[in-house]
Specification:
The protein is mainly α. It has two domains: 50 residues, no CATH class; 62 residues, no CATH class. Helices cover 59% and strands 0% of the residues. The longest helix is centred in the middle third of the chain and has 20 residues. The protein is elongated and about 45 Å long. The relative contact order is 0.20.
Length: 126
């Protein structure tokens, strides 16, 4: 599991993408309703390391309740990623698990999977 307080290698990249989405909207209001719309916009990828995602996908295959201890946004992210992973796995049964997961991670995410408050903190941090 991820250690509390650890940071990802791509946090700056994710934050830059979130800021770009915010500033391209031409609505610079940072109230929570606007931030909710912002985090619901599609992201270029799932912001998780493919090896970490592979470990979580393996746990999900073994135990459907593996996500029960995660925060809601992360749980929704892994559920969406797992669905994509399963579709790729069905289309390519001989493909190694890490390749299926990596393809799913980089296909693009339906949203940023952040809370509106986290998004606002990212927008204000520079």
């Amino acid at each position: 599991m991820k250690r509390k307080g650890s940071t990802s290698d791509f946090a700056q990249e994710r934050n830059a993408e979130l800021r770009a989405a915010f500033f391209s909207s031409k609505n610079y209001n940072t109230d929570l309703s606007n931030m909710q719309r912002l985090v619901a916009t599609p992201a270029s990828r799932f912001w998780v390391d493919p090896y970490r995602a592979r470990d979580v996908m393996s746990r999900m295959e073994a135990d459907p309740d593996a996500l029960s201890g995660m925060i809601p946004q992360r749980r929704r992210m892994y559920a969406a990623l797992f669905k994509r992973y399963r579709e790729i796995r069905e289309r390519n049964p001989g493909m190694p698990k890490i390749k299926c997961v990596t393809e799913a991670v980089f296909e693009g995410a339906p949203e940023f999977f952040l809370t509106p408050r986290t998004a606002r903190a990212i927008i204000y941090s520079r």
